[in-house]
Amino acid sequence: MKFLRVLCVLALALCVTASVYAETQSVKVSGDLTMRGLARNNYDYRGTITEPDVTRTNAGRENYSSFFLTNAEVEVDADLTDNVQTVIRLVNQREWNVTQTKSVSMNTTMAQNGLGGLTYSPDEFQVAVDLAYVTLKEFVYSPLTLTIGRQDLWFGKGFIVGANQQDPTGSISDAPEYTVINSFDSIKAILDYDPWTITGVYANIRENSVKAPDGINLYGVNVGYKFVEYKAEGEGYWFWKNDESIEKWGAVKNNNNIYTFGLRGSLEPIEALYLFGEGAYQTGTYVGNRVQQNVRQRSAFALDMGGELRYFADKFAWKPKFGAEYILYSGNKPDGNPRESNGSYTGWDMMYRGKFDSAIREYIGRFYSSYDYQPRADYLYSNADASYTNQNQVIFSASATPIENLALRANWNLFWTMYAYEADAENRANDSFTNRSGGYIGQEVDLSATWDYTEDVSFNVLGAFFVPGDVYQNADKTATDVVGSVKVNF
């Protein structure tokens, strides 16, 4: 009797397994490895720091650093029953062999791993879930596709929504812009009425406390249309970023309601010329910090327009292309009050931009800070020189393929302010914000070369150089970033 029960259980398990297997039509495993070596200098534009300085975040540190990074990704794509697909991607990203201090009660020469009081960071080898979603095609209604779970979101050129950059383990904190985790926990619905496409999206960005309204959520609708003529396309969108994450003091509400409306389009009026443009406006409310006394109204705008000339790509074997682009983020005019201001807030909120055109400058205020304009809690002018607001940017670019499998690219970026920065370069210890500096922010040159060794392996070398402008009165050293990388796709 016992033997019969065992046979029944095995038969049932076999049936279930066979049923599951039959419903999985195909499974694809893919991934990539990227190893980078970085050498950086003067990222706060100050030069070598030789004397202790208790008033600055980089006190007593050398500005030069060199280290290695690895990004490893493994993705599993499964086609299940008709119109059902799942994707899971696992990621490990880390700086090579980072150690941290470990207290020991014994002789430090006998400490763990023989490292003399140091131990390897436990975050270095953690695996994070980057993607985990299911796609349901022809869901209920044939033009409708529904995607639920942790997924990448990218609209247009990624000017408003394109990346939710994260380093959840903190294992690449010295170069967080090289994270491969850009995903959103979201629900996306697409209605495909070719040539019309209507996309609705909800994304949960952050939950501080599940039972309290103190998280960040994103809602949006994007309507696109593809024209038959000139390879043209256009889209209009509305995104609502509901940010209630700021800790509030007193009666003021902590709502940062950012409503972003915009239009984007591109076309090729002739075969050798590509043009594009995008404009967006932000309204809603603004709360910058927990000591702010009044909720302010938002009124900000941004522009992105440019083109690429491809005429010479068909004339020369090395396929040269040339481009130009102009980007504007509106700024908030300073009024001398470091903690509070009245009237509309006109500074641009970067939302979840995924488009970055320079290797150094465009991460100031997001991942890095300069010496003259430091991050300050509860101050209106924290990171006054942040790259995502109060900035005009002009980009000249060129690319060429001088020989087969070798691609060269160069970017020349120029930056100006819209309004003068409110600075505290000489008075950080008190509330004095008496210095103002506006005009020329600086220029950056980015040079890169990519060699496709095989179809699966490529090498890249990037050299980036940012030369600070007139707005930096106490630190004007050139910031440099040299990155060598090898990438393998499988």
How does this structure look, described?
This protein is mainly β. It contains one helix and 22 strands. The protein has an 18-stranded antiparallel β-barrel. A two-stranded antiparallel ribbon has the order 4-5. Strands 18-19 form a two-stranded antiparallel ribbon. The radius of gyration is 26 Å and the shape is globular. Mean pLDDT is 86; it is low at 1-22, 50-61 and 425-429.
Reconstruct the topology from this structure:
Blueprint: H1 2-23, E1 26-41, E2 65-79, E3 84-95, E4 99-101, E5 118-120, E6 128-136, E7 144-151, E8 184-193, E9 196-206, E10 216-226, E11 233-243, E12 256-270, E13 273-286, E14 296-309, E15 321-329, E16 391-403, E17 406-417, E18 421-423, E19 435-437, E20 440-452, E21 457-468, E22 479-489
Antiparallel strand pairs: 1-2, 1-22, 2-3, 3-6, 4-5, 6-7, 7-8, 8-9, 9-10, 10-11, 11-12, 12-13, 13-14, 14-15, 15-16, 16-17, 17-20, 18-19, 20-21, 21-22
Pick out its properties.
single chain, 490 residues, mainly beta, 18-stranded antiparallel β-barrel, disordered N terminus
How many structural domains in the coordinates? 1
What oligomeric arrangement do these chains adopt? single chain
Structural class: mainly beta
In the CATH hierarchy, the third-tier topology is known as Porin
Mean pLDDT reading = 86
**So what's the CATH class?**
Mainly Beta
SS strand fraction: over 45%
CATH architecture: Beta Barrel
The main β sheet shows up as:
18 strands, antiparallel, barrel
What is the percent of helical residues? under 10%
Give the overall form.
Answer: globular
- Total number of helices: 1
Q: What is the terminal separation in angstroms?
A: 51 Å
Can you tell me the residue ranges where pLDDT is under 50 for at least 5 consecutive residues?
A: 1-22, 50-61, 425-429
* Sequence of secondary-structure elements: HEEEEEEEEEEEEEEEEEEEEEE
Tell me the Rg in angstroms.
Answer: 26 Å
